[in-house]
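Dear H.,

Thanks for agreeing to be a second pair of eyes. The structure we're designing against is below in token form, covering all 155 positions.
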């Protein structure tokens, strides 16, 4: 599972001209799901995203988490995070999970993230427009996988 995290001052997602979700200070999380992902990986990644200390403290150091600043998450499904553009000019999207699994794990991620901070979201599979004010700018990619020993880790 991949998350592209952007620290934001505000972010919103609209669908057919209507706002589906919006936040103030917090994290915009674009979330991609791979075929080998499961609910445990989704929960792990939600916890890691919420716990990232990427908000500035009084000294200007990135030392505060989402909870420390009272922030929220805007979670948007993004299968294109698994695009492979190594061949030709047209990206290959076959490395993304099938829609049924991706939607299920997107919902698990949102539910688990919601236990840690307020969550707003887009709508799975919709044509969405995302607006944001990236703060910093700070953008961090995270990827969680199950290792050969069965444990989940960031890679």
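And this is the sequence the design step returned. I haven't edited it by hand at all.
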């Amino acid at each position: 599972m991949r998350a592209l995290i952007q620290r934001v001052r505000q972010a919103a997602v609209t669908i057919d001209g209507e706002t589906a979700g919006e936040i103030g200070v917090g994290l915009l999380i674009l979330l991609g799901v791979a075929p080998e992902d499961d609910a445990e990986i989704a929960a792990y990644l939600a916890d890691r995203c919420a716990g990232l200390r990427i908000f500035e403290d009084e000294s200007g150091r990135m030392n505060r988490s989402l909870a420390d600043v009272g922030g929220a998450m805007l979670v948007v499904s993004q299968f294109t995070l698994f695009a492979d553009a190594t061949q030709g000019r047209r990206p290959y999207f076959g490395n993304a999970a099938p829609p049924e699994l991706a939607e299920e794990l997107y919902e698990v991620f949102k539910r688990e993230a919601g236990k840690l901070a307020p969550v707003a979201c887009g709508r799975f599979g919709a044509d969405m427009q995302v607006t944001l004010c990236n703060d910093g700018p700070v953008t961090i990619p995270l990827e969680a996988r199950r290792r050969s020993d069965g444990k989940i880790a960031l890679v």
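Two observations from my side: The chain has a mean pLDDT of 97. The chain has three helices and nine strands.

Warmly,
E.
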